[in-house]
Amino acid sequence: MQVIQEGAEVWGQDRPDLGGADPGPAFARLFDVHAPQLRRYLARRVGTETADDLVAETFLVALRRRESYRPELGTARSWLYGIATNLLRHQVRSELRGLQATARLAHAGELSHAAHDGRVAEQVDAQTRAAQLAGALAQLSPADRDTLLLVSWAGLDPAEVAEVLGIPPGTVRSRLHRIRRWLRTNAPAQNTKEAQTP
User: Fold this and answer.
1) Are 161 and 143 in contact (CB under 8 A)?
2) Residue 4, SS3?
3) Neighbour-count burial of 179, counting CB atoms closer than 10 A to its CB (0-12 exposed, 13-18 middle, 19+ buried)
């Protein structure tokens, strides 16, 4: 286990020293450990093709800015998700347009409910619920959407989300409470449960 000493504090592998002369091994380990989860999270937000690009860009930015990483301020995982979230914000406009278009499909009735096959009917119901949830997510502010999706899709806990977004953990918890209450009112019951599931 790689351990570095900084003052009186000892940091383990979740807070590696990235400022060394040869960052290759540390970044290879970071990539192996965090890239698959980061890719899954980003793919849910922007699709697999864009997620692949964002993961690559996240690690390039991290490598270029490795001297700015401070283990005493948070884990490497949180730091990487913070970089990815900032890159993702550039994608927010297209994500928002996609959510709004999906919601319009549901409201326009373009998803047919008249199907004779049970499987087709289930798919249509699932698409309708997804469209309704997409509409609700599209109405959230970017900060609220990032907070909710970092918890529900990326599986980060509120303390990690706080590190990613640079806000206090209490703010994350109060945001999540407010967002979930809002979703209970503005999204179908089944989809609200899906959005809350880490």
Assistant:
1) no
2) strand
3) buried
Residues 94-144 have pLDDT tens digits of: 667 777 777 776 665 544 444 444 555 555 555 555 666 677 788 888 889
pLDDT > 70? residue 84: yes
Q: Three-state secondary structure along the chain? A: CCCEEECCEEECCCCCCCCCCCCHHHHHHHHHHHHHHHHHHHHHHHCHHHHHHHHHHHHHHHHHCHHHCCHHHCCHHHHHHHHHHHHHHCCHHHHHHHHHHHHHHHHHCCCCCCCCCHHHHHHHHHHHHHHHHHHHHHHCCHHHHHHHHHHHCCCCCHHHHHHHHCCCHHHHHHHHHHHHHHHHHHCCHHHHHHHHCC
Contact 135, 102 (CB under 8 A): yes
Q: State pLDDT tens for residues 14-71.
A: 887 777 778 888 888 999 999 999 999 999 888 888 899 999 999 999 989 888 888 8
* Rounded Cα distance, 39 and 54, in Å: 8
Q: What angle do CA 22, 25, 28 make, to 5 degrees?
A: 130
Which pLDDT band holds residue 8 (cuts at 50, 70, 90)? very low
